[in-house]
Amino acid sequence: MKFEKILIANRGEIALRIIRAANELNLKTVAIYSEIDAESLHARLANEAVCIGPPPSKESYLNITRIISAAEITGAKAIHPGYGFLAENPEFAEICESCGIIFIGPPPAHIRTMGDKIQAKETMEAAGLQGIPGSKSNIEHAKDARKLCRNIGYPVILKAAAGGGGKGMRVARDEDELDAGFRIAQAEAKAAFGDNRIYLEKFIHRPRHIEVQILGDHHGKIVALGERECSIQRRHQKLVEESPSPAVDDNLRKRLIEAALKAAQSIGYRSAGTIEFLMDQDKNYYFMEMNTRIQVEHPVTEMVTGVDIVKEQIKIALGNKIAFDQQDVELHGHAIECRINAEDPARNFVPMPGKISFFHMPQGIGVRFDTHIFAGHVIPSQYDSLIGKLICHGNSRDEAIARMNRALEEIVIDGIPTTIPFHKKIMKHPKYAAGDISTDFIEEM
């Protein structure tokens, strides 16, 4: 399981994040890049860089054959997928293994099981976790959905079995909305995932999205690194995350961690992963899904625990045992992350690619900005609009908010619209300051 060189099958800030972790572990890195990313920082800062195709993702960052070829040509014995692209593609993980390349992530079987939302729910309920009331399997016809809704009641939410990121999701408050939403959800699921299977759950009013970060090694050891609050979302896409959650006390945190550990132990999980819950207003929590990869919001957990999650992920892939125990995990202070996107909030958050004419990074104690941008960098239209993650840490939540407000005022990104003005509104909102948040927060602003 030993390797000395990692190929990073990704781009942008997460590629840089992996390069930093590898450098600290004295490992060499290989960047892959599309033609439009030739001048990108991840291509410049890796030890080696290989162009794998033109800008469209399917011809570059999603082209498994070219990625494997790049690894073989450069002698990289391990591949880190980051997040997005191929990170949760079990076929990619299997191909890596068949080529004698270590996939820095969980086994393909875990990716496949947890990637299927119906199978994941069945697996976790069998392990003793309570899921959201709803269908036990996929629903093929709207008439079957109507029958189920007569038992569990409205409102309900339709979800794609193979889905994520809010695609193939529809809320129905009555039978008419259910019939129309069913057809739309099936069509969206088929278009996005090539799989039109739909399942149904009871819709929880003003829930919180709470997730627990876990690490598991090859020796059967699993630890949890506390929880994250990810309720500030727009169209099921996270905008702001924080750790710890303002709604979780020590007793509830203990129960959430116990549930997450039970979930991971039930499948013998290894690598970094996240157990995600929906929590209602009475603080009842329900298993929602498991993400089998490093997540965009992992830095808030790093800031409050002092654990470098990406380094731990790499060390686990090397066969190392996690060097600390559950009782060693302590949360210090509070951390908040704002996802900075190249989008125009005034125009319904339409992506706005273009050239950055000037960039000033916020600085000072407790401020971290994970980004791949620089003055003169061109944001391409072919990829995700995320251009940076602003993370602020304080001794308390109030101090973290104050630092975030200061950092948002200090950061300068000229040349393209960004979501910075919108984040300023969130941070100054009295309900956010009070911790009165839910997945409906943006709609209620």
What amount of the residues lies in strands?
25-35%
Low-confidence stretches: none
Most strands sheet: 8 strands, antiparallel
CATH 4th-level superfamily of the largest domain:
ATP-grasp fold, B domain
> Which class best fits the helix and strand makeup?
alpha+beta
CATH topology-level name of the largest domain: D-amino Acid Aminotransferase, Chain A, domain 1
What does this entry look like structurally?
With 445 residues, this protein is α+β, with helices and mostly antiparallel strands. The protein folds into three domains: 5-104, Rossmann fold (3-Layer(aba) Sandwich); 133-202, Dna Ligase, domain 1 (2-Layer Sandwich); 208-444, D-amino Acid Aminotransferase, Chain A, domain 1, CATH 3.30.470. It is built from 15 helices and 22 strands. It has helices spanning 12-24, 41-45, 64-74, 90-98, 108-115, 117-126, 142-152, 175-193, 250-266, 298-305, 309-317, 397-410, 420-427, 430-433, 441-444; strands spanning 5-8, 28-34, 48-53, 78-80, 102-103, 156-160, 170-172, 198-202, 208-216, 222-234, 237-243, 271-279, 285-291, 334-341, 343-344, 350-351, 354-355, 358-360, 367-371, 378-379, 386-394, 412-414. Strands 13-12-9-10-11-14-21-19 form an eight-stranded antiparallel β-sheet, sandwiched between helices. Helix 4 (90-98) runs antiparallel to helix 5 (108-115) and helix 7 packs across helix 8. The protein is globular. It starts with a strand and ends with a helix.
